[in-house]
């Protein structure tokens, strides 16, 4: 039964990563903490590890379809990198005082994220493509880099929420259409997840080899398939699918945890 849960968690995480550039932790962490009774910090570690390959392959799919801004994404990734190191340490300190606190925070955050996708979908800049020759004002780029640093801290701390926050930066601050925003966001989150994973291991997080590999492989599979679908899917439909998925998965995990399941 546990292995089945690992497969479901991995596939669900891969799907939301490929569809909307969300962190794999929005699914993996609640499942491992709420249903499998994992320690919150170690659940975040596995989720970040799964996020590295899932985000990498998802971003490659978006890149092949011309939906990534490499120049701006690299600038934001550099500041997010430094933020994720600090966030990982903060998460470690928090886990010492509240063993499963990270898991509960992620579950609650995911429900609100799901509602946002459904009630207020990200549909800004819906044109098919944003010209690669367009000049981004230096002030907006600087603001995006500062926000990237803060998002890196949050992602290193919770292992979740970084993807949707990055998505907001690229759509609201820089005015990208949703597909380019998702593609660039997954590129940034690849580095952030890698940094967070290494930091968590350096701070002593444990990694269960078999269960970890099951989650990572299934997450990778889900991400590849869903990223291909997302590049052809209607934007509003994407918002609805991801929103409903987040609410259902997080609610199930929260109920399981509160009932002692």
Task: Describe what this molecule looks like in 3D.
The protein has ten helices and no strands. Helix 7 runs antiparallel to helix 8. With 261 residues, it is an all-alpha fold. It is 79% helix and 0% strand.
Helical stretch count? 10
Number of strands: 0
State Rg. Answer: 17 Å
Global shape:
globular
User: Between the first and last Cα atoms, what is the distance in angstroms?
Assistant: 13 Å
Mean pLDDT: 78
Strand content: under 5%
Sheet having the most strands:
none
Structural class: mainly alpha
Q: What's the helical proportion of residues? A: over 70%
In the predicted model, the low-confidence regions spanning at least 5 consecutive residues are 126-133
Order of helices and strands: HHHHHHHHHH
Topology:
Blueprint: H1 2-20, H2 25-34, H3 40-64, H4 70-97, H5 101-119, H6 138-158, H7 162-173, H8 178-202, H9 209-230, H10 235-258
Helix pairs in contact: 1-2, 1-3, 1-9, 1-10, 2-3, 2-5, 2-10, 3-8, 3-9, 4-6, 4-8, 5-10, 6-7, 6-8, 7-8
In short:
This protein has 261 residues and is mainly α. It has helices at residues 2-20, 25-34, 40-64, 70-97, 101-119, 138-158, 162-173, 178-202, 209-230, 235-258. Helix 2 (25-34) packs antiparallel against helix 3 (40-64) and helix 6 packs antiparallel against helix 7.
